[in-house]
Amino acid sequence: MTAYWINVYKEIVDEAKVAAYAELAGPALRAAGGTFLARGLPELTYEAGEKTRTVLIAFDSVEAARAAHDSTAYQKALAALDGGAVRDLRIVPGL
How many other C-beta atoms lie within 10 A of the C-beta of residue 10? Predict the structure, then answer.
C-alpha cells in the first residue's frame, strides 16, 4: 500500500542549512524509492490553513518510507539541517 511522507516546514531558521539538507535529502529519498509529488508553498489555504512550505513524497509502503528516514544517507541530510528548520514530518498510509 502506498504511503505518503508529508513534511511541513513550520519555521525556517537558517536558509543555508535548509539548502544543504535539500541537496542531500532529495537524492537520498529518491534512492530509497521516494517519488516527489509536490514541494513548495500552497497556492490556496482554507480553514486553519497555513502558508508554509510543504513537501509530499510517495513511497511503496510505510515500511519503505521508514527505511528511507532511517537510512544512513537521509540521516546525513538531517545532520546537515542541524536545527535550520522547525518541521512536522508525518508518514501516512494511502487508501
Answer: 11
| 18-61-68-32 Cα dihedral, nearest 10 degrees | -100
pLDDT digits (tens, 9 = 90+) for 14-57: 999 999 999 999 999 999 999 999 999 999 999 998 999 999 99
Closest CA to 19 of 90, 95, 85: 85
Contact 35, 58 (CB under 8 A): yes
Specify the pTM. 0.94
d(C-alpha 6, C-alpha 14), whole Å: 21
Q: Are 9 and 84 in contact (CB under 8 A)?
A: no
11: cell is 519555521
Give the C-alpha separation, 67 to 54, whole Å.
21
Give the three-class secondary structure for 8.
Answer: strand
